[in-house]
C-alpha cells in the first residue's frame, strides 16, 4: 500500500554503541548487519564511526544510529557525547582472545564512570566463532559467555561470525526489538508542537512527513 505524500509518520531515533577491544570485529559486525557482506579491510578503527539504518514497524520509522567506538583506549572515547543518551549497548569480544572477554568488565566500568547504564538494553557478542572450524564454537551455551553476560547485566548473549554472517542479524535484531519494547505508545504520540521534537529519557521522537511514496514498508524482525 502506498502512502500519500502528505501523510505523516513518526520517526524514532535510537542510539546503539558497540564497544570492545581492538580486533574483535566490531566494525565487521555492524557492516555485516547493514550491508550483509564481510569487509576484508584489516585497518583498525581509530576514531568513532557512525552508521545508520532505518527500519519501519507498524507505521513508525526507527532510525538506528550505530556508534562504532575504537578499541585502543576505552577511556578516551567513552566520553560524554558517546555514552550519553544511549539506548543499546553491544559488548563485543573475540572467541579466541580470552582477555578480550575479561576486558568487557573494564568497558562497563568506563561507561558507568560517564553515564548510568543500568536501564540500557545490553547484549554480549562473542565474535569469530568460525575461526576454529569446530561446530562447538557455534554453541551459544558457553558457560564463560553466560557468566560475563550475567555480570554485565545483559539481556542476552550470542556467538557470531561476521565472516559468514552467523547470528549477526539475529543478535542485533534481538537488541533492537528489546529496545523498542520499552517505548511507550504515549511517548511516541506526544511531541513538542514548537520544534516537533520530544525527548523522553534517551529516546528522541520526531514527527515528520513521509515524502517517499514509492518505497515499501520494511519490517525489522
Name given to the CATH architecture: 3-Layer(aba) Sandwich
Nearest-angstrom radius of gyration?
A: 18 Å
Q: What class do helices, strands and sheet pairing give?
A: alpha/beta
The biggest beta sheet reads: 8 strands, mixed
Q: Compute the number of helices.
A: 8
Description of the structure:
The protein has helices at 26-35, 74-77, 80-83, 98-102, 104-112, 143-151, 168-181, 185-189, and strands at 8-19, 49-57, 60-68, 88-94, 121-127, 156-159, 197-200, 203-209. With 221 residues, the chain is an alpha/beta fold. Strands 1, 2, 3, 4, 5, 6, 7 and 8 form an eight-stranded mixed sheet that branches. The radius of gyration is 18 Å and the shape is globular.
Could you give a short description of this structure?
With 221 residues, the protein is an alpha/beta fold. 27% of the residues lie in helices and 27% in strands. It has helices spanning 26-35, 74-77, 80-83, 98-102, 104-112, 143-151, 168-181, 185-189; strands spanning 8-19, 49-57, 60-68, 88-94, 121-127, 156-159, 197-200, 203-209.
Amino acid at each position: 500500500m502506498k502512502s500519500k505524500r502528505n501523510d505523516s509518520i513518526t520517526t524514532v531515533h535510537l542510539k546503539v554503541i558497540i564497544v570492545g577491544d581492538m580486533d574483535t570485529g566490531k566494525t565487521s559486525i555492524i557492516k555485516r548487519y547493514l550491508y550483509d557482506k564481510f569487509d576484508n579491510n584489516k585497518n583498525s578503527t581509530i576514531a568513532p564511526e557512525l552508521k545508520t539504518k532505518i527500519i519501519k514497524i507498524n507505521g513508525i520509522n526507527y532510525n538506528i544510529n550505530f556508534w562504532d567506538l575504537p578499541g585502543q583506549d576505552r577511556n578516551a572515547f567513552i566520553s560524554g557525547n558517546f555514552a550519553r543518551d544511549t539506548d543499546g549497548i553491544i559488548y563485543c569480544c573475540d572467541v579466541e582472545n580470552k582477555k578480550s572477554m575479561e576486558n568487557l568488565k573494564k568497558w562497563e566500568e568506563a561507561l558507568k564512570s560517564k553515564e548510568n547504564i543500568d536501564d540500557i538494553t545490553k547484549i554480549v557478542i562473542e565474535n569469530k566463532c568460525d575461526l576454529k572450524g569446530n561446530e562447538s564454537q557455534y554453541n551459544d551455551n558457553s558457560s564463560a559467555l553466560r557468566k560475563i553476560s550475567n555480570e554485565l547485566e545483559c539481556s542476552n548473549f550470542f556467538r557470531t561470525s561476521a565472516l559468514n554472517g552467523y547470528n549477526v542479524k539475529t543478535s542485533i535484531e534481538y537488541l533492537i526489538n528489546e529496545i523498542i519494547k520499552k517505548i511507550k505508545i504515549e511517548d511516541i504520540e506526544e511531541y513538542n508542537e514548537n520544534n516537533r521534537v520530544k525527548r523522553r529519557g534517551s529516546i528522541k521522537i520526531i514527527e515528520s512527513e513521509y515524502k517517499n511514496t514509492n518505497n515499501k514498508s520494511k519490517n525489522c524482525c
